[in-house]
Amino acid sequence: MTNSATRKRPLARHLGFITSPLFLAAIAVAGVTFLGGLTLWNDRVEAEREALVYVENHAQIVEEHARQAVREVVQSLAVSVGFLESLDLNEGRPQLDAFVSRIGASSPRIDRFAIYDAYGQVIAGDGDDILSPSETNFGPETADRGNRFVVSANDRFVLIDLPYFGSNSSPGGIVRAGIAKRYFEDFYETINIREGSDVGIALPGGDVLVRHGMLYPDVDMPAPTVQLGGDQEVHAMLVSVGGVDRFEAYRRLPDIPILIFSALDASAVFAPWWQNLRLFVIIIGLIAVPLLVLGRLILRTQRRQRWLATIVESSGEAILSRTRDGHIASWNRGAERLFGYSAKEILGRHISVLWRTDEATKLAQEAERLNDQGTHHYSENTVRVRQDGTEVSVAITGAPILDGANQIIGAAITARDISKEREVEERLYRLAYLDALVGLPNRALLEEKLAEAVESSVENDTLMAFHYLDLDHFKEVNDSFGHQVGDTLLKSVARRVTEVTRKKDIVGRLGGDEFGIIQSAIDDDGDATHLAERLLERIAAPFRIQGRQIGAGASIGTVLIDLDEARSIEPIEAARSLLQRAEIALYEAKTGGRHQHSYYADHHGDRVRRKMEIQEALTRAVREGGLDLHYQPQVDLGTGEIFGAEALVRWTDPKIGQQSPGEFIKIAEQSGLIVELGA
Fold first, then answer.
1. Per-residue confidence at 136, pLDDT binned at 50, 70, 90?
2. Which superfamily does 316-424 belong to?
């Protein structure tokens, strides 16, 4: 059943990114971006507010100046209209001229003053340069009491017109006052106007009368989007003129159709803000781009780590890691299957729990090997212990884990179950090197072990002996009781020989009923003689097989190593020489009457070689028909009659010549060829 800790683990794994440095850095960048963006937005709002205040203030300043100038003009025009409407122009010409002079003297703001009749003719004043016939149609239909002041301008003057009427309310004409544009322009130059700003006077329809700054000289002022009214009413806004944004404020003079305007280029207002924005974007980019690159690298690394972790978990082999002091730090499913411990049970425990109790020294050696080999791998086939106490054969591969300073902090270890492989190897080993019947080393393995014993004796300058043991009359046992009894006898002999010898001695079966015993590290030939006598004695005791008492004996040939000779040749050659000499000594023992023990001597070699040469040639002659049969008649000496014949065998070999029957018959008897020869 899954416990709560197990259920929470996936959630913790998914939320683990919250504490990652990359996530925290991303949060920090996002926070800085948000705060920076908020600050920039506030700066923009503040810049816009300051711009609106600026144009409002300048509009108010211009409006106050214009109001003073226009007030004088309006008052003069109103007085003039009242005077004209009460005067009979036909009779009061002198009075009219005096009035015009008085107006010019009392109103310094008025640069030009003229009175026109309904047909555009100057009645009085200096109006020739402030009026052209194309500017105004002075027909009777143009005058209306409801149409009060009319404002216009030419190149030099701002013109304000006020109509007057006759006694019968018929249009009489207009009174016009001109204010020099220079009057306004000189004042505008005294105002602290920012670069990219513009102030002036315009008509409600948008036609500019006077302006200063010339922000957009080729663009007319836009018509106001709201109806302005009242002395103090101000309309300030951000507008787009000709596709260009600017801040504008409008004020309207009371009773006079004149708009006061102040404008400021939005690009000039927002230039520092845009510069700060670009700088902020660059800074964020300089932070975010490396962070994104780092993030991609980290994500790629994390994906690679997750992929590697998946590979490790999916591996059929046991993969684990340990700290430098031997505590287990990681443990995959393959390790769980191999050793039986779950990760929860094993993590943090010392790796010695997987070792046999008698291998503490090897554990220390492994730690030393890890430190000595540095970055090199090490591998070995060994045995480890499962959780249930059973042992398992494993192939171990280890490699050190290094930190950033290239210092060893632990080891990564893989373990593979090689139990089946070991079983196959052992089976092949037994087939190749162990005798299938008695389970002892066969001739090939015994020769290898004998060569190793020779090499050890030479290195340590110690004496050793090799015994060649052959059972007596084993063929008769096989023939009399069958091969099954013979095989059992061989097993029993092998067991008795093993019981007599020491643990460090090596016993092997050379073939048939022959055994070899390697007796290493002896003091002198007395140790070899003692072992040979014990072997003869032990084997001579009857064997009980299948309810029968089977008697057997043995003959032993022994050879002692000649250290001087062994030093001069290869160990394997010395081993084969010992084997051959021990066999010669065995023949000597058998020649001496069996159940004997004989040491090898140099003169034995010639005699045995002669005997073996005859035996080999005799075997070939018997099987290939190389023997001659001669018949010698048997005569009755009393009667002289032949009553029979005696068969005599004669043998002449092509290589060794004619042989005496007395010699080769004896060899035939000893070797068992006598049966074939008699047949």
1. very low
2. PAS domain (3.30.450.20)
Give the closest residue to 321 by CA, choosing from 353, 290, 303, 347.
347
Euclidean distance between CA atoms 16 and 302, whole angstroms: 12
Answer whether 632's CB lies under 8 Å from 645's CB.
Answer: yes
Rounded Cα distance between 125 and 110, Å, is 12
SS3 416: strand
Give the C-alpha separation, 580 to 298, whole Å. 73
Distance CA 23, CA 625 (A): 101
Domain 70-180 has CATH 3.30.450.20: yes
Query: What pLDDT digit, counting tens, does each position of 342-351 carry?
Result: 989 999 999 8
Domains 316-424 and 437-600 in one fold: no
- The pLDDT of residue 222 is above 70: no
Q: How far apart are CA 329 and CA 402, in angstroms?
A: 14
What the block records as the tokens of 461 is 């300058």
Cβ atoms 541, 552 nearer than 8 A: no
- What's the token pair of residue 172? 């009489």
The CATH number of the domain covering residues in 48-67+183-268: 3.30.450.20
Count the neighbouring beta carbons within 10 Å of the beta carbon of residue 76.
Answer: 22
Instruction: Report how far residue 493's alpha carbon sits from residue 552's, in angstroms, rounded to the nearest whole number.
Output: 9
Q: How many CA atoms lie within 13 A of 586 on its CB side?
A: 24
